Amino acid sequence: xxxxxxxxxxxxxxxxxxxxxxxxxxxxxxxxxxxxxxTYTGDAANQNDLxxxxxxxxxxPSTVFTDGDNHWGTGTAADRATVAVDAQxxxxxxWDYYKNVHGRNGIADDGKGSYNRVHYGTxxxxxxxxxxxxxxxxxxxxxTQLGPLVSLDVAGHEMSHGVTSKTAALTYSGESGGLNxxxxxxxxxxVEFHAANKSDPGDYLIGEKVxxxxxxxxxxxYMDKPSKDGASADCWTAGxxxxxxxxxxxxxxxxxxxxxxxxxxxTVNGVGYNSPTCDGSSVTGIGRGKLGAIxxxxxxxYMTSSTDYAGARKATLSAARDLYGADxxxxxxxxxxxxxxxxx
Length: 344
Ligand code: ASN
Ligand code: ZN
Ligand code: CA
Hints:
The structure is a single chain. The protein is an alpha+beta fold. It is 35% helix and 20% strand. Strands 4, 5, 8, 11, 12 and 13 form a six-stranded mixed β-sheet that branches. The N and C termini lie far apart (62 Å). The structure holds asparagine, zinc ion and calcium ion. The site of zinc ion has 4 residues, from helix 2 and helix 3. Asparagine is lined by residues 126-128, 157-158, 161, 181, 246.
């Protein structure tokens, strides 16, 4: 059979109708993209991995989705291919964000794609990146608190764990763990903005498409004021590293919002924010593009596995000096945004 790349489209759950590059094998299309390192999406058939630490006794499948006419999904969760469209699209826009914005050629910067498994387990309320399979796994959610976890910010968040693992390798506990989580929230958010998808526009909320009414609030996390989730820290204090990494991330998420947008109230893409500083200062933002450039350089050049919040301040200042100069407004803004979250 001849194998060739084709252009199709899919009706996604969260992003409307989206373009897809697929693989025509004989007369069947596969949800596999040779233009992005052969990244593909498969069905985990509601099975679970059986893993002890890093050793897996059995793994849920990843049977590649196929289609007869290259028009994928129906846009409703009842159709198994629909969330596969979201997952593949999320991988596409994450690939494109890293390639077009940072010149990074795939998660490992080696041109190789990863793969996705959707419909993992039963009512599974999570999604995760796994270094050992170089793959993404998405649950369908329990339908009450969470729906399928295939939104753009979650996809960008999870695959950014792969980027962190291949670069700074921030240890996933203590302050470095909070920085690891914040790196994923920052790039997940920048991926969402980069996609410029009308049905899932960029915002500084994490998981706003995924939460259902039973969850009790409109997002998993908030970058303008992380404590809005009831658990995350807005400001650095001694003992921050004792928090769960999804809560100690709050300080760096808050820094990122202040650096990109500035303190106080504003509306971005129709969503209102109010970001207070911890020290009463006021911060002027330098924009999302410069936030991404500074954080990416800090992550890939200066941070190491043991970087803590004081080290993140140093790393981002070094990155800003490299990119914009020691006396630049951008370098001053990095210092001001860290001071505003009590990282002095
Ligand atoms: N979804 C979670 C996360 O990426 C999975 C985990 O606990 N690592 O943070
Ligand atoms: Zn994470
Ligand atoms: Ca979001």
